[in-house]
C-alpha cells in the first residue's frame, strides 16, 4: 500500500482477494485461541496495515466472495466497493466474545442505516450482496466472474477525471463523511482492553477451535 500511495502514475487502486475464495474472512480464530494471531495489524495502519492508514488515492474494494469480520472492515476502509452476487457481509465478532476493532463498529453506522448497522453488530448475522447494495454498503453487484472488471470499469470512470481534482475533492468529502475518528478509535481500544480482561474474550476463540457452542459468562 505504501508503494502504491507513493507512485504518482497510479491514481486508483483496486483491492481484491486472492483466488476464488473469500474476499477476506478476518482473523483466524484457531490461531487467536492459541495466542498466535499477533501481527495482523500495524501501529500506524491498523488491521492489515490498511484500515487506518492515511491515503490520497481512490481505493475500490472488489469483493469476489464473502467479506467477514476484518474482511468487511477492509471494505469499509475503501472509498468504493463492488461485490459478487453471492457475497455476504458480516461482523461476527460478538459471537466469539470480541469487538470489531478494525473499524467495523466505527464505520458501519456511518455507511449503512443506523438500525441496520446495529442489527449487524449485535446479531453477528450476515447480509447478502443485494442488501449490501440496497443499504449503500457497496456501489455495484455483479456476477462473480465480472467483479474485478466491474471494479476496473469504475476505476476507469474515476481516471477520466482530473486526478488532482479527485484527490482534493475526496480529501474534503472524507472529512465531511466523518473521517475524524480519533475519539472513536480510542473508545474501541478501551473496549478491547475491557473485553480482554474478561472470560468471554478467551472463551469465544477457544469454543470455535474446539467446535462447540461458547459458554458465556458476561
**Topology order in helix (H) and strand (E) letters:** HEHEEEEHEEHHEHEHHHH
- Domain tally: 1
Q: Structural class given helices, strands, pairing?
A: alpha/beta
Q: Kindly estimate the percentage of residues that lie in beta strands according to DSSP.
A: 5-15%
Number of helices: 10
Biggest sheet overview: 4 strands, parallel
The first-level CATH class is given as: Alpha Beta
Overall pLDDT, averaged? 88
The CATH level-2 architecture is identified as Alpha-Beta Complex
Q: CATH topology, anyone?
A: 2-enoyl-CoA Hydratase, Chain A, domain 1
Strands of the largest sheet, in order across it?
Answer: 1-4-6-9
- Poorly predicted ranges: none
Distance between the termini: 39 Å
Would you give an account of this structure?
With 218 residues, the chain is of the alpha/beta class. The protein has helices at residues 2-6, 29-33, 70-77, 104-111, 114-123, 129-134, 147-159, 163-176, 182-196, 199-209; strands at residues 12-16, 41-42, 46-47, 58-63, 67-68, 80-84, 88-90, 127-128, 140-142. It has a single domain, classed as 2-enoyl-CoA Hydratase, Chain A, domain 1, CATH 3.90.226. The strands form three sheets. It has a four-stranded parallel beta sheet, sandwiched between helices. The protein has a three-stranded mixed beta sheet with strand order 5-7-8. A two-stranded antiparallel ribbon has the order 2-3. Helix 4 packs antiparallel against helix 5 (114-123). It starts with a helix and ends in a 9-residue tail after the last helix. The mean pLDDT is 88.
